[in-house]
UniProtKB/TrEMBL annotation:
One of its GO terms (cellular component) is plasma membrane. It is found in: Cell membrane. This is Gluconate transporter. It comes from the Bacteria. It holds the Pfam family GntP_permease. It comes from Ginsengibacter hankyongi. Its main location: membrane. The keyword Membrane applies. InterPro entries: Glcn_transporter (IPR003474). GO terms for molecular function: gluconate transmembrane transporter activity. The keyword Transmembrane applies.
Length: 437
């Protein structure tokens, strides 16, 4: 009976978001309360469970995600992203123009949220298409593959960051493993796969041609690259150093403090405030205004993540999570494959990669806490599954279709297949890493 209740709640969540067009935050909230009551949590304790779940989930995430949004907004508004793109184009030349876009998308995708990165990169893609008279989908898809991989696999993006916290994984190790998997996923789903798409007819709409800052107003090359990549560099250095230093020593304690993702993001934002703000002639007031605007963009993301934590907490407090974990122990499927499969199914039904990842985490959290699988790899497996088969219920699908002005058939053939290839390569990479770690 309990499993039937869980199935009905998940099905209800999916239907509310897809068919009913209910906001995911409200859908999670309603389903969490209904699940708590149906699973036997007393009336006077259901709301407390929901509130605790939201607070517990957001408590360790708000700082990281908010600071990440501020950094991304500054990188975009200051012209640093444009500068990075310009430098990469000059470095690779026309012959390897696809690879220039791939590397640019990857670098810019690390600090920027996917939607922001998508819109920001579209003018660059179209300018290359018109300047060199190349097929738009063939040129643009590799860059979007790089953006998608960073969004699904790598902290400090919301979903992987939330999964790291829920599974008590190591942010630095997850990032390192994610980078290892990201490279082949981008290459296969981007430049290699796009070779089969040269014949797709695409005439990008004039409406979507963006404006760019003049060259003399752009920040320097070093400042642009340093500001965008500093969170990754600091996390990797701190993680590597921590492996050679005892945490009991004074130096070890300092390293552990500096390795905290919130501290890393705060340091990175402080550096960027100077290099991309004050140094460029912007006042502190205008930089702070940029940061305030950035937080508005992530308010709903934070609410969705928090409400997913409510469902997880209800499942935990009712005791059903432990029952699910016990039953999954007897399922003859590797936990990493099971996680990918559940995330992929929810993604196909709901359309949102973030919702798919967080819902899967709530279901499988007890399995991770029992130590049956590497939590860092579980984050990546769920991240890979949450990208599978993007179709008509995903906003990214429609953004690609409308910006590139292609048919639904060609969107499925290009965009949907690209996302699915990333998902499958990601799973393969996780399983290979699992052999060695």
């Amino acid at each position: 009976m309990t499993f039937l209740i869980i199935f009905l709640c998940i099905a209800g969540l999916v239907l509310m978001i897809t068919w009913g067009k209910i906001n995911p935050f409200l859908a999670f909230l309603i389903v969490s309360i209904a699940a708590g009551l149906l699973l036997g949590i007393p009336f006077n304790k259901v709301i407390a469970s929901v509130q605790f779940g939201i607070g517990d989930t957001l408590g360790s995430l708000v700082i990281i995600i908010a600071l990440g949004a501020m950094l991304g907004k500054l990188v975009a508004d200051s012209g640093a992203a444009q500068k990075i793109a310009s430098v990469m184009m000059k470095a690779f030349g026309v012959k390897y123009i696809q690879w220039a876009l791939v590397v640019t998308g990857f670098i810019i995708g690390i600090p920027l949220f996917y939607g922001v990165g998508f819109v920001l990169m579209i003018p660059l893609i179209f300018s290359v298409v018109y300047q060199y008279k190349l097929p738009a989908v063939y040129i643009g898809l590799p860059m979007l593959a790089a953006l998608s991989v960073t969004f699904g696999f790598l902290p400090p993006h919301p979903s992987p960051t939330a999964l790291v916290v829920q599974f008590h994984a190591n942010m630095g190790l997850t990032l390192i493993y994610g980078l290892i998997i990201a490279i082949p996923a981008i290459i296969i789903a981007g430049p290699l796969f796009s070779r089969t798409l040269k014949n797709i007819h695409s005439v990008p709409l004039e409406t979507f041609h963006g404006t760019s800052l003049p060259e003399d107003r752009l920040p320097g090359t070093v400042s642009s690259f340093l500001s965008a990549l500093l969170p990754v560099v600091l996390l990797m250095i701190a993680t590597l150093v921590a492996n050679f230093v005892s945490p009991a020593t004074s130096f070890g304690k300092v390293v552990s403090f500096l390795a905290e993702p919130a501290v890393v993001m705060l340091i990175s934002l402080s550096v960027a405030t100077y290099t991309l703000g004050i140094k460029q002639g912007s006042s502190i007031k205008s930089v702070m205004s940029t940061y305030a605007e950035s937080v508005k963009d992530i308010a709903m993301i934070l609410l969705i993540i928090g409400s997913s934590g409510a469902l997880k907490q209800v499942l935990t407090d009712s005791g059903i999570s432990q029952e699910i974990a016990a039953q999954l122990n007897h399922v003859n499927i590797h936990p990493l494959i099971l996680a990918w499969l559940i995330a992929a199914i929810i993604r196909i039904c709901v359309g949102s990669a973030t919702v798919a990842g967080l819902t899967t985490a709530g279901i499988l959290a007890p399995l991770i806490l029992q130590g049956h699988v590497n939590p860092n790899l579980m984050v990546l497996s769920i991240g890979a599954g949450s990208l599978a088969f993007s179709h008509v219920n995903d906003s990214g699908f429609w953004m690609f279709k409308e910006y590139f002005n292609v048919s639904i058939k060609d969107t499925i053939r290009s965009w949907t297949m690209m996302e699915t290839i990333i998902s499958l390569v990601g799973l393969a990479g996780v399983l290979i890493l699992n052999i060695f770690v």
